Amino acid sequence: MIIIVGVLIVFGSVLGGFVMAGGNIGALIHVSEFIIIGGAAFGALVIMSPKRVIIDLFKRSLGALKGSPYGRVEYEELFKALYELFMLGRRNGMIALEEHVLKPHDSSIFSKYPRFLNNHHAVEFLCSGLRPIVDGKIKPDQLKLLLDVEMESIEMEEHEPVSVLTKSADAMPGFGIVAAVMGIVITMGAIAGPIEEIGHKVAAALVGTFLGIFISYGLLNPLAVNIEFFNHAGMAYLRCIATAVVGFANGMAPVMAIEVARRGLNSEVKPKADALEAMLKSLAAPGKK
């Protein structure tokens, strides 16, 4: 929603200033310029990107328009789910977590927290982190390295759409110049015509340059930065899970493991220590069905 408001402000300020200076909005509407610039930009995007990255780019662009899905409520559900899971493991041993880790969508714990359960990447990350400990394949002090490697891989993959979008944005002024040059070529072919016709064609050519620069710095580059913030929010959520899991696997009490994870959050989503402790203590019979 905020992005949409920002786009309206950008368009409103540019077009409003243009009209206030005596310009006619119709003079900026040249379908041929849009086709040249848009088609060339999309073609370059296809050339430089694997299919997976293109699909991911469109998904993340839509996700950025909706806003970050990682708010205070999502973190509260996460902490509750982790607390119940950790308490179960502390009371009955890590083997008691097997049914929840192997079949998270059938888990009596996760089913209480739909916001967390619907986040398939986070659920998979948590379960894949706990599974080697539950199976006894690695020692607790080796878990941090395992999760660090996985998060590094996820972060690199998430950066790819941002990199592609940034390169596309940087290319837009160049495509605007291409459209402008083609417009000038057309103008040269009609140089002997009426001066009104020549003026119209020159204006159309200049619109190409305007569109390329405007789309680059007014839309695509800001969108790339917003997607990067969106990715940071997702990585912070996974890092919170990793911190809590590693702490618990190394012998921390469930409340303390979650407290360590809480301290790594930014102020926008970080619950107060007292509020978190009260929330966790209010859970009735944690870990029981």
Domain tally: 2
Poorly predicted ranges: 285-289
Helix content: over 70%
Largest sheet: none
Strand content: under 5%
Shape: elongated
Please specify the SSE layout and strand pairing:
Blueprint: H1 2-20, H2 31-48, H3 51-66, H4 72-92, H5 98-102, H6 114-117, H7 120-135, H8 143-189, H9 195-249, H10 254-263, H11 273-281
Task: Describe this protein's structure.
The protein is mainly α and 289 residues long. It has helices at 2-20, 31-48, 51-66, 72-92, 98-102, 114-117, 120-135, 143-189, 195-249, 254-263, 273-281. Helix 3 (51-66) packs across helix 9. The chain is elongated and about 90 Å long.
Please outline what is shown here.
This protein is mostly helical and 289 residues long. Helix content is 76%, strand content 0%.
Keywords:
mainly alpha, disordered C terminus, 289 residues, 11 helices
